[in-house]
Amino acid sequence: MFLKAVVVFFCVFGFVRSYEAKTALIVVDVQNCFLYGGTLAVGHGNEVIAVINNIRSHYDKLIALTVFTQDWHCWNHVSFASQHSGKKDYDVINLTYNDKGELCTSNDPRCVVKYNISQTLWPDHCVINTTDAKISANMSIQQGDVIVQKGYHCQVDSYSGFYDNGGFSHTEMNDVLKKNGITQVLVTGLALDFCVYYTSKDAKKLGYDTFFILDATRPVFESNVKNVTADLLSKGVHVINSTDIGDYI
Length: 249
Ligand code: VGL
Ligand code: ZN
Fold this sequence. Notes:
This protein has about 250 residues and is of the alpha/beta class. It has helices at about 1-20, 45-60, 175-180, 195-205, 225-235; strands spanning about 25-30, 65-70, 90-95, 105, 115-120, 145-150, 185-190, 210-220, 240. It has a 6-stranded parallel β-sheet with strand order 6-2-1-7-8-9. The protein is globular, with a radius of gyration of 20 Å. The relative contact order is 0.19. It binds pyrazine-2-carboxylic acid and zinc ion. Zinc ion binds near residues 71, 79, 125 and 126.
């Protein structure tokens, strides 16, 4: 009887332990380009830095891995308004791609369109190897942290830290999380309505228990916040403030 109880206890304990969450902090695009004085500065963007650094120091023991993403664009990236004559910043255009995910340009009538992707046009920003693209010097990057770059395919944008906007290619994000046994992610950074939103959606789709940390992000367009949070909630993403993280991890 006693032995049976002991066996049951250890089985249940083992089961619970093997299902224990392992948490990663994802810090999206906290780069000079999106901060005050940058080429695509997000309003109040700098305020996320202290919030994220506080999360790191406060939950140091519970966060198994921190991954920084970095928007990392070709100088002539397709998302730049400067590359589209007659277009201006924040215009929205339709981009067309063939079955291989190659951009169909209007002067190539032979290109057979398979995918249509809506593209917001941005000021030139976060160009590869510029100071503008550097992760903020005020972010505490530590040994063991991982940096995942995205947006370096010149003809397709990449809001998510996992996939480009066409789903044509993936970054190392999912492999890194899987290799580290991560089951739960806290998503923070810039910008709320683009890269933080898309990264959170993909994390949830890939099966991670996903937390969108509202006070650790800021939007490009304030008017998007309601729709973004409602959509994430409808998909099962938790939308919480950093002060409540302790209740979940
Ligand atoms: C982002 C617009 C263009 C972002 C990146 O990090 O949210 N937004 N590129
Ligand atoms: Zn970008």
